[in-house]
């Protein structure tokens, strides 16, 4: 039986190969479609240079060979094994009186371009061919029928001779017959650019499955990087759901043991109440048990976070130096959701990270942006849970005291297996804090509230606050009934 992987060619972009379920099928033709500056030529350069041991052919109808080689070198591509057919308009042709700058009128009935491509192909015998851009052929054809005929004849000849061909074309809205080209090719890759966001989508791939939907891409030195959309169902490991303690006896009693491995916990509370400190305390305790932990912070500098932790007797520097603890400060508005998910996957799959904290949900929403932020967060959390990672999500509520008690402002509390509430309360003219467990799917927990405090000697959780009501509203008073707590 043939190995399906043996029929594949790498695109030269690892993320795109994952989208294509392993790469391009050999001896097929593909259309890369997109507007100006969307990355079509860059993708073609990746494809041509993916295997330095084979010859490749670049057919250019828009840019001269010298400029192509200069631009490729600036991006980090070597075209030493790439032959170039330069069919771009020449400087001399621009001075001609005739309106045709690439072909003479008589060439329409006897096109020179396909003939020249065949001649070069016979001499070079390339395994990979990139034509930039196939749309230009329509300008040499008297009508749509002749255009389709030329394209079909050329692509069938090249693929029948053992080549795999990628052709660039304008996007479907350009009105340049690019929609017709889609019917002639075995696969279509759409490149899109909106504001500062770039994406890639495979809309057709004969003979193979592929990852549907839009996937983030980034262009820069070194070319194109592709970040496939995270599909949680494709990932998972077997693991034991053991409880991991905070290392604070009173809180661990509240949780009846701690947080279970492979669960999501939301720590919710107003600004400055101690959410980050509590999360770091849990991670510090895990570091002491030999587990790697990582904080992705959208709101605070690494130095500030370390300084605050050291100020309450949590020695982060020691764990950072040992490699057990890491802080990743996320630059606002830099990452797409797919890029951030790829960064998280790298921590989990390559470094064996067992605990991840996202600080905070509001920072994630603002920085990641885009459509369906909640859906992307859901996919990320499901992936982490499937991989046995314990997740801490910090949520800041706007109200300091009073009003209805809500765990999140984004409506994502359904993701949480455990919810810990931190709240301010006013007693005898002093601002004090309380902690309580609202939910724990994996086991029992204490229903009472306890006093919570952060001191230079660490986090302290006191006795239960019995005989009071209104604590979560910040207005404790003697009572026996408790107010409803709503999400």
Walk me through the structure.
By secondary structure, the chain is an alpha/beta fold. Helix content is about 30%, strand content about 25%. The strands form 5 sheets. A 9-stranded mixed β-sheet has the order 5-4-6-7-3-8-9-10-11, sandwiched between helices. Helix 11 runs parallel beside helix 13. The two termini are about 55 Å apart. The C terminus is likely disordered.
CATH level 3 topology of the largest domain? Rossmann fold
**Low-confidence region ranges:** 91-110, 482-487
* CATH class value of the largest domain: Alpha Beta
Strand content: 25-35%
Termini distance?
56 Å
How many helices does DSSP assign?
13
* Alpha carbon gyration radius: 30 Å
Percent of residues in helical segments? 25-40%
**Count of individual domains:** 2
- Category by helix and strand content: alpha/beta
């Amino acid at each position: 039986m043939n190995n399906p992987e043996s029929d594949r060619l790498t695109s030269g972009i690892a993320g795109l190969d994952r989208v294509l379920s392993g790469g391009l099928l050999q001896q097929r033709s593909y259309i890369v479609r997109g507007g100006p500056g969307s990355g079509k030529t860059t993708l073609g350069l990746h494809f041509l240079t993916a295997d330095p041991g084979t010859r490749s052919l670049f057919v250019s109808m828009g840019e001269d060979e010298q400029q192509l080689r200069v631009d490729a070198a600036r991006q980090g591509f070597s075209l030493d094994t790439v032959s170039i057919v330069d069919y771009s308009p020449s400087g001399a042709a621009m001075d001609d009186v005739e309106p045709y700058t690439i072909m003479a009128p008589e060439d329409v009935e006897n096109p020179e371009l396909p003939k020249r491509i065949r001649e070069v192909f016979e001499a070079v015998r390339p395994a990979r061919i990139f034509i930039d851009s196939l749309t230009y052929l329509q300008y040499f054809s008297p009508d749509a029928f002749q255009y389709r005929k030329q394209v079909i004849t050329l692509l069938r000849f090249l693929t029948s001779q053992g080549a795999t061909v990628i052709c660039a074309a304008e996007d479907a809205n350009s009105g340049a017959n690019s929609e017709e080209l889609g019917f002639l090719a075995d696969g279509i890759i759409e490149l899109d650019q909106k504001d500062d966001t770039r994406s890639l989508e495979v809309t057709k791939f004969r003979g193979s499955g592929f990852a549907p939907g839009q996937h983030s891409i980034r262009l820069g030195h070194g070319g194109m990087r592709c970040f496939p959309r995270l599909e949680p169902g494709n990932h998972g490991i077997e693991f034991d759901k053991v409880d991991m303690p905070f290392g604070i006896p009173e809180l661990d009693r509240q949780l009846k043991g701690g947080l279970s491995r492979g669960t999501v916990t939301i720590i919710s509370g107003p600004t400055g109440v101690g959410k980050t400190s509590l999360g770091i305390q849990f991670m510090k305790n895990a570091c002491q048990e030999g587990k790697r932990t990582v904080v992705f912070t959208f709101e605070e500098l690494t130095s500030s976070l370390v300084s605050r932790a050291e100020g309450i007797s949590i020695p982060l520097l020691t764990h950072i130096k040992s490699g057990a603890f890491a802080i990743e400060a996320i630059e606002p508005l830099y990452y797409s959701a797919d890029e951030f998910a790829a960064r998280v996957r790298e921590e989990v799959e390559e470094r064996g990270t067992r605990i991840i904290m996202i600080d905070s949900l509001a920072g994630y929403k603002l920085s990641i942006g885009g459509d369906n932020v909640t859906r992307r967060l859901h996919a990320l959390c499901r992936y982490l849970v499937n991989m046995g990672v314990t997740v801490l999500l910090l949520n800041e509520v706007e109200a300091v005291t009073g009003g209805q008690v809500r765990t999140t402002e984004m409506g994502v509390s359904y993701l949480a297996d455990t919810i810990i509430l931190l709240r301010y309360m006013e007693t005898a003219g002093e601002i004090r804090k309380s902690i309580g467990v609202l939910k724990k799917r994996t086991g029992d927990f204490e229903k009472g509230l306890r006093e919570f405090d952060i001191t230079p000697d660490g986090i302290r959780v006191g006795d239960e606050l019995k005989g009071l009501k209104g604590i979560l509203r910040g207005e404790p008073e003697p009572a026996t009934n408790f107010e409803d707590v709503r999400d």
